[in-house]
Description:
Blueprint: H1 12-21, E1 28-36, E2 49-56, H2 60-75, E3 98-101, H3 109-117, E4 130-133, H4 136-145, E5 152-159, H5 171-179, E6 183-184, E7 187-188, E8 193-194, E9 204-210, H6 213-225, E10 232-240, E11 252-255, E12 258-261, E13 267-270, E14 275-278, H7 284-291, E15 297-304, E16 310-319, E17 323-325, E18 337-338, E19 345-346, E20 353-354, E21 359-361
Parallel strand pairs: 1-10, 14-16
Antiparallel strand pairs: 1-2, 3-4, 5-9, 5-10, 6-9, 7-8, 11-15, 12-13, 13-14, 15-16, 17-21, 18-19, 19-20
Helix pairs in contact: 3-4
The structure holds zinc ion (ZN).
Residues 329, 331-332, 347, 349-350, 352 line the site of zinc ion.
Amino acid sequence: MDDTDSLRGGCTTEVLFRLIQQLPTDVNVGQARLVRLWPFAQRRTRGNAAVAVELKTDDESALLQFLEGYWNDFILPLRGDVQASQHSDREQFPSDPGMVWFSKVKSNELFYRNGLRQEIGEKDLPEATKSWGGHGKIGATLAVHWPAKTSTFEAIAWRMQENTGPRKLDEKAIAIVDQMKETFLCRDGRLGASMLAPRGSSPVLFGVRTWTKQSAEEALQILIDATNTEPVAGSIVFETNHATNDHLDESLELQIEAIEIFKGGHALLHSTTERFLAFKESGQIASICQELRVGDVVECKGLRAPDGSIHIEFLQISHLVSNRKRPLCPTCNKSMSSMGRNQGLRCKKCGFKSEDVWDESPRSLPMNQWFQPPPPSRRHLAKPLDEQPERQNNL
Ligand SMILES: [Zn+2]
């Protein structure tokens, strides 16, 4: 299902959690999945994630009857809510939930790939055994067909409905979970702030991201069992496409033809054929881009936005033109200037002449090292550079 975010700040993961809790007892619940989709989708929800779960039953028609009832009673009423959003600069769409059921699923690599890189319409969807609702069917169908060739995990726990104040999460337990080798993005390294709990009115108490399912279960238990953690309504370990870089293609190398720096610190790099955008929020990437010059060569990875520019998510410098200045006049300490091709240099003030030479000095920007935005400004799909599982060390 997808697009069920409600005014209460409710999120699609919680709607799936409640559905699973009420399933008929003979239904066997398999792996749940949380799949992030194209970040530029026009009607995207916050974080643009859809959810799915594998259900096994001997009585499919009874299950469909249950889903029909659940849809009408609990999901359909969420339609039309406009979510509270931090992004007031873009058009808000009322939620338009969708749910799909596929009796048999063949994962579809190309469909998933397109779902991460471009707008998908309802007409592009493989036909479901049964479907409910509107726009949310798109994300729902993508979540079902995600091949999960590489995946990570997120253990999510929800608050009791009566708890609406500040979240209570045990600090010691947070520290233990943060130290676990198989967890990632628990903290924003710069500020030391925990990233486990969402901000605002979400029903989620915390989400812990891990490289393995086992570590997700361990971390979940540590946090739930801790003395100072508030009681939870329940939890699910989701298989996700977080930190897979599935949305990115091979890196592109560009030689810079022009650079524009915008108010606020965003930078736009032009190559002969492409435009690459570094947002101020991308931290070191933006500050490096501001220092780049025509002729420098950088390697980038990022998604192409609807306006055709590529939004930089990974950047490394492969070549820097050297600093070239005309030498100073030994008397006046002012830069000398060229008198024309092969005519030598001259000081405009005193007339001192010298050979046609440049003073070259290397620039101090870091070469051959990848950079990415700080954790809060990263896409969920982006793989952290500094926290990699041991078995997959390459970008
Ligand atoms: Zn001089």
